[in-house]
Amino acid sequence: MTQLLIEGRTIALDKDGYLLHLQDWSEAVAEALAREENLHLNAEHWEILRLLRAFYAEFQLSPANRPLIKYVALKLGPDKGSSLHLNLLFKGAPAKLAAKLAGLPKPTNCL
To answer: In its keyword annotation, does this UniProt entry include Cytoplasm (predicted)?
Structure first.
């Protein structure tokens, strides 16, 4: 998959399915990317995706798992900022999958 067709627009993706252009992100794009991952986004997912976008706006990078967990715990509390909670939401790969769905670059230290 190297592109998505969303609302009449072609959205370019890299070889791993991440957006090539951050400005192409929208909730509709996130939903389409989630469908490709066989994931239905609910309110808990959106809370994390919005938080990730805020993190990126502040630090200009996508966090790896450990910083993501710490940031979520800081902003949303320890129940939501746990590796178990985030792994359940994002199929065992929270940093990579959440970054992809939030329209952010792949975290640099993720394989």
So the answer is: yes
Of 61, 73, 93, 110, the catalytic one is 110
Q: Which stretches of the chain drop beneath a pLDDT of 70?
A: 1, 109-111
Helix (H) or strand (E) holding 69: helix 65-76
**The pLDDT of residue 109:** 67
Query: What phi and psi, each to the nearest 5 degrees, are found at residue 6?
Result: -125, 120
State how far the Cα of 97 lies from the Cα of 107, in Å rounded to an integer: 10
Its pTM surpasses 0.85 = yes
The answer to whether residue 110 is catalytic is: yes
**Three-class SS state of 55:** helix
* 53 touches 101 (CB < 8 A): no
Q: Which pairing describes strands 3-6 and 9-12: parallel, antiparallel, or unpaired?
A: antiparallel
Q: Taking the CB of residue 96, how many other CB atoms lie within 10 A of it? A: 20
pLDDT, residue 100, reads: 97
